[in-house]
C-alpha cells in the first residue's frame, strides 16, 4: 500500500519494487544513498553552470575556476561540443532531480530529510561560492 501522507518507519519502498527497506540495516544505507545522490545532483548543477559560463564567453567570477575546461575554442565545432556537453549535463541533472522528487514522493520522513539535507550540503559545498554575482537558470524545481 502506498502512503499518501508522511510516515516515520524503517519500512519504505524507493523508486523500484526491488528497493525496499524493512530494517535499520537496509534503511540507513538507503538514506545514505539518497543523501549522496542529492549532493551529486548539486555537483552536476555546479558543473553545468560553469560550462554555461564558459560557453557564453563571460568572464568567470573570482571563485569559479574550470581547470579541465579551457577558453581556447577554435571554431564552431568546439562550441558545438560545449553545447552538447551542456545538454548532456542538463539531461543527467534533470533525470537525477526527478528521481529525487520521486523518492520524496515515497512520503517517508527519513527519506525526505536525507534528500533535503543532501541538497543543502551539496549547495554549501558546490554552489554557494559567489553564485549571487552570476544569474543562472535552474533546471529543476528542487535546485
Automatic annotation (TrEMBL):
The answer to whether UniProt assigns keyword Electron transport to this entry is no
The compartments listed are: Membrane
Q: Which residues cross the membrane?
A: 24-44, 80-101, 107-126
Keywords on record: Copper, Copper transport, Ion transport, Membrane, Transmembrane, Transmembrane helix, Transport
UniProt-listed InterPro entries: Cop_transporter
What is one GO cellular-component annotation here? plasma membrane
- How is it placed in the membrane, per its record? Multi-pass membrane protein
Gene Ontology molecular-function annotations: copper ion transmembrane transporter activity
Q: Read off the Pfam families from this record.
A: Ctr
Main localization of the protein described in the UniProt heading: membrane
Q: Would you identify the family this protein belongs to, as annotated?
A: Belongs to the copper transporter (Ctr) (TC 1.A.56) family. SLC31A subfamily.
Name of protein: Copper transport protein
Amino acid at each position: 500500500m502506498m502512503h499518501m501522507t508522511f510516515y516515520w518507519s524503517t519500512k519504505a519502498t524507493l523508486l523500484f519494487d526491488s528497493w525496499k527497506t524493512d530494517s535499520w540495516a537496509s534503511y540507513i544505507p538507503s538514506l545514505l544513498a539518497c543523501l549522496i545522490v542529492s549532493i551529486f545532483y548539486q555537483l552536476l548543477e555546479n558543473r553545468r553552470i560553469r560550462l554555461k559560463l564558459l560557453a557564453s564567453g563571460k568572464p568567470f567570477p573570482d571563485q569559479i575556476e574550470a581547470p579541465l575546461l579551457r577558453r581556447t575554442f577554435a571554431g564552431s565545432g568546439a562550441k558545438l561540443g560545449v553545447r552538447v556537453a551542456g545538454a548532456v549535463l542538463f539531461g543527467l541533472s534533470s533525470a537525477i532531480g526527478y528521481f529525487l522528487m520521486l523518492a520524496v514522493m515515497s512520503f517517508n520522513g527519513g527519506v525526505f530529510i536525507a534528500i533535503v539535507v543532501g541538497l543543502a550540503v551539496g549547495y554549501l559545498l558546490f554552489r554557494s561560492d559567489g553564485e549571487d554575482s552570476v544569474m543562472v537558470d535552474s533546471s529543476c524545481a528542487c535546485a
